[in-house]
Amino acid sequence: MGDRFQVIVDLDAGGTDAERLARRALEWLVAEGVVLAERTPCVLGQPLGHPPGPHWQRAVGDDWDFEPWDGLAVHTRRTGFTSGADLPGAALCPRCGAPAPLDDDATWRRFRAAMRVWHDTGAASVGCAACATAVPVPDWSWDEAPLAFGHLGFEFWNWPELTDGFRARLAALLDGHRTAYVWGAY
Fold it and tell me: Which domain holds residue 56?
């Protein structure tokens, strides 16, 4: 069995909001006993994270078949979150719903270039071929394998599936911002 992860990404937080919102959410997670305040080497790809707390079940509900054995990494800088090795088949325009097939080399090059610019600068758009609207990279949605772009992400490593209710409660702490849920395995 490989390592699994689930990420709740704030799609609207900017670089200045990320730290404040991360503190608020982490205080709530610690107060609920979902994670511990102390940081230990309990997450993959990061030096330190927050290990599961005594009430971690509040995040996953009653239907779980294993206990979490890793922790929570909180990302507070511009990050592209991906589901792992797979890429989506298409990007979906949030304005008109038209798919932009990513197996088309020209389309993929446009998206890849915009993703790089967004990562480097925090702002980039890709024009929709169907409605001719320039859409910011974080606003696109993705079929099949999810992607999300944001300055704030809560990445749970090797936990049972987070419930919809838990994800909604965490999202409610983020000033009404839109969130995305990305999951995958390595």
Answer: 4-77+151-185
